[in-house]
Structure of Major facilitator superfamily (MFS) profile domain-containing protein:
Amino acid sequence: MSEEKIHDTSNNERPTINRIESDTFIEDIPASPSDKPPDGGYGWVCIFACFLINGATWGICASYGVYLNYYLTQNIFPGSNDIDYAFVGGSNFAAALITAPGVNWLLRRLGTHPVMLMGGVTWLLGWIAASFAKTLWQLVLSQGVCIGIGLGLIWQPSTGIISQWFQKRRSMAQGITSAGSGFIGIVYSASTTHMIDNLGLAWSLRITGITSFAMLLIATALIRDRNKVVRPTIHPFDVNILKRYQVWMVLGWSVFSLLGYMVLLYSLGNYGKTLGLNQKQAGIIITMVNLGTGIGRMFVGVISDRLGRVTVSGTCAALSGVSCFVWWINARDYGSLLSFALVVGMIFGVYWATIAPISAEVVDLKDLPSLLSLVWLVDATPTLFSEAIALELRTGRGNRPYLYPQIYSALCYLVAAGFLLELRRNKWGLLAREKNR
């Protein structure tokens, strides 16, 4: 670490300013008021870039439910069972999240854009490799692990950038960006069934990879971080933040939200098949979930800035749990399942829109990358196993094979809501008005 002496002729003192090596973003210089997020400007371009990133990654991953239905009904890989295919989708999410410490290490060494470019290329290679898969293990490594690693490399560097550009309207901005997974996901979930039917599975995978890679290149070119101003402490894993009680509440909410989320995301389409729906109708169910996601996340972002991020997120988690009990269990025809998919889509994935803003309520902005890295690492386990647990809970008898997975998902969301309720009590009080940073 080098030092630079600056001469001040007014008092003949030589204050020392520490200049850090280029592989970190931390400087021992206090931030000035002008360093605060501008709440606009080029931040709107970054919103568009993150909108594309979320749509081209998570929006497409959400359409795996279409592939899952196809794999389960067409016996593409003989000898494979439902649990095997569930792990393909689960490993997709888990690989994206478990790479968090490695991504942070790369960010310190290379910076934002090179890491995101690496992610885009890895993402594309995963889709191309999946189109040539002949065995289940090849599918797991390509459509699961490789695509997941690419997702992590391109998505994780972008997660904290919006918080660097927005403060007062942070939840609104984050809601708009996360809505990309819903709106762009609509296009892919609606077109995947048609591509499989008309072009075959292999070309469906290739077209998905190529078109999404083009969007990711555009997003990478447009996005800009403010690391030189914010000076985030980007560590692969900072154990010191585990000493904070509120961090544990965020982690609890995170784990149980995703346990419930994965079941709804991947099971709704196949649940429709148990009601007698065909492949096209099951695909429309997933499309309705994405439509609800796109609409809901934008409104949740706006409402969160007004009513409080923790309050709104906790309410949505509770409503998701109640709707599984009251609505999903009783959705026994195409119309009722369509309406449930649309409504629950608005609230069940709020986690992705609010995890960064809520994390910014618990730690300082400079510590946000470290906390998010910890969150993603912890989240890898529920995303990997939750859908497999749900499929294992299915019963092969009676007319309600998904009853236990429905109850399981509902309980997970209610527990998640409980963690946010405790976070609210600890930070502001149960009845006090929530004050966003």
In short: The CA atoms of residues 248 and 336 lie 37 Å apart. The first strand starts at residue 2 and ends at 5. The chain is about 75% helix and 0% strand.
